[in-house]
């Protein structure tokens, strides 16, 4: 009988403890009213920008071109080079790209950027002045600016595929802006 009474007491205590409540605290200070934002659509509109320019790499520009830009911390920059024309369509390759010539000669198209500037450049293990004009003159590049959170959310996208990136950010050829190169 003592065991039943003990078990009943323990059950009542277990059921009663979670329902205990203390006194309500004082009212907090009133907050400031914010400005109501616009109602959004189903998706998030992200300012993804795509720029295009035609560049010539030469000794005069140290085989590099650049431009000012403004990136927030964590944002990303992708640079593509028109590698070829296939059935009148551009074939874009994400930089860096390396070309292997005979006898161990290599040429690399590459880029670098900060939050205020980017540049696209050529490097080689030979004198770039000896390079044929087809590799240096009138090279079309495209630059895509992507917010950092956007890349993290879409990490499974093949960023080396320019068309996939354009589809991802909801842009088409009409949305490409001219690139101001220095």
TrEMBL record:
Write the record's keywords in alphabetical order, separated by commas: Signal
Domain of life of the native organism: Bacteria
Signal peptide residue numbers: 1-21
Name-wise, this protein is Collagen-like protein
